[in-house]
Write the structure tokens for this entry.
Amino acid sequence: MEEDFIVSNNSTIDIGKIWEAALQKIANEVTAISFDVWIKTIVPSEIKGNTLVLATPSLSSKKVLNNNYKTIITSCLNQVHSAITSVEFVIEDASIKEEEEKEEAPSEDELVRSTFNPKYTFDNFVVGSSNQFVAAAAKAVSQNPGEKYNPLFIYGGVGLGKTHLLHAIGNSINETKPELNVVYVTCERFTNDLIESIRDSKKTSTSSFRAKYRKADVLIIDDIQFIANKQSVQEEFFNTFNELNENHKQIVISSDRPPKEINPLEERIRSRLEWGLLADIGIPDIETKIAILQKKSQIEHYNVSKDVIEYIAGAQSTNIRELEGMLARAVFYSGLLGESIVSIETAREALKDIAMRNDAELDASVILDSVCKFYNIKKEELLARKRTKEVALARQVAMYLITDLLSIPLAAVGDIFGKDHATVIYAKSKVQEDMHKNKKFATEVNDIRAMIKGK
């Protein structure tokens, strides 16, 4: 996508277009109020190396952005243009800057603590069957850093809560063990710090880089998969890992895949990543998605009905950030209409062009036909109230596949079978659980899925 922003042969970047594209992504990551108050006031200023300089109207807004939104803004900008790996906030008005920056600068300790998003705590992390193990491991590490589960390697797909847990660990340690030096960094930032130290070529620069990471009591690295194919970075990480491990310091790492699937990666590094505990964040079930959206509504003080929560949770997406963005969109749209509470009708209207639409090439009838053919039963039996063991199993599988393959509300799935959404939730969870326990059954369900996709 980034090629769209190259406007001349000398690779001059149109920061206005980049910022406009990033704003669309940021709007899905923050609340509507936060977006209006803090984000919309930002003006892109210039690019210095890989850093986009963003002008803010006051010192107070600069502090809020640095403390609460810097990571989100940087991530969204990087998605739009991969060359941008960091942001810097400056005060737009020179006279205000001169006056306000006379205030006492924050201490180094305050800057370290502000690295972690205050909203990302263990209390705000919703635990379900898919993440119970990893949440318990993260909490154990925060209570006794360096004593067990070292390193703690957290892996899972995009938007499932890895970064939330990393920040929760940091926030917890900062609160209960403030004497410890906790260093959090993305793999990309670690890489850029190393490149800058090499580019500087001064001995003091390299020493400063190593002191930053090797003097940590707790080192937290996000998205370690980006270390693949970076020989010098792998070498520096290897040496940093060894020194911290020898001194019984805690290492916490996240990735979108387990160590064995990060390629190319030196085998000595792969083995060290597997020394401690590998913890997988699984795909959330429907109950967990509902609980997460309820927690989000509580934290952000959204006035949302249960039907709306269940409607959004019934979307095909398993990316929690996407679901939270859909919730924020529905709330914002409802506010424009002057509603005191988000109605299901408003939510449908607000999200009609996102992830709630049906797959144009696949509908429920195709899935029902495939299930009936596999289990050798008639569609009338499947949709009737017949409760023989064979029909009940086929009905649950059909409900599971419809919710898994189509982006339609749970209530709509229930209507197909003359059931309520609670029955659909139960069926989906039951099939998921049985697939996990019984490989033969899992193969059957996947065979039906293949039949459906082949039509």
DSSP finds 21 helices and eight strands in the chain. The two ends are 33 Å apart (CA to CA).
